[in-house]
Amino acid sequence: MKQLTLIRHAKSSWGDPSLSDFDRPLNQRGTRDLPGMAHRVSQHLPAAELILSSRAQRAQITAEEVAGYQPGSTITFVPEMYESCYETLLNILQSQSDTHQHLILVGHNPGLKALGYYLTHEQLEKFPTSAVQHIHLSVRSWSEIAECCGTLSWFDCPKKHLPYCK
What CATH number has the domain bearing residue 95? Predict the structure, then answer.
């Protein structure tokens, strides 16, 4: 059985209109929420061998923080993950080496939320920034991933741990 963790990047800033969407950094809430999320992932889940991340700045920062809590993991930045649909994410997963038992994807909505639904048919009301969805996949090979092959085993987001600030 393979394991997959989907992580939406931490909250980003819209404060500098001269920056492109791709280059937006984290805002104060993202900076606050990220370490706690990365720590909870390390406490609740097995270490991932590989973290696949979008190249957008907010995703890179998120992936690097998560990797700091994942001993032995490496990060691969995948340009196609930026603004990707779930089919693109699925293709990326299906091409991964079977030596990896647990992968983490760090990316964006709506692609991550749609991928989680495709794999589990669990309808999440929201997939907010810094949210984590962990899925057990009933496959032996990443190339076998298909619709409904997964079971949602853990969902977490900052709202569950801190007074929610809008």
Answer: 3.40.50.1240
| Residue 166 covered by a domain | no
Report the percentage of the chain scoring pLDDT > 90: 93
Give per-residue pLDDT as tens, 62-105. 999 999 999 999 999 999 999 999 999 999 999 999 999 999 99
User: Using CA atoms, how far apart are residues 164 and 31, in angstroms rounded to an integer?
Assistant: 14
Print the domain residue range for 111: 2-160
> Per the structure, how many domains does the chain have?
1
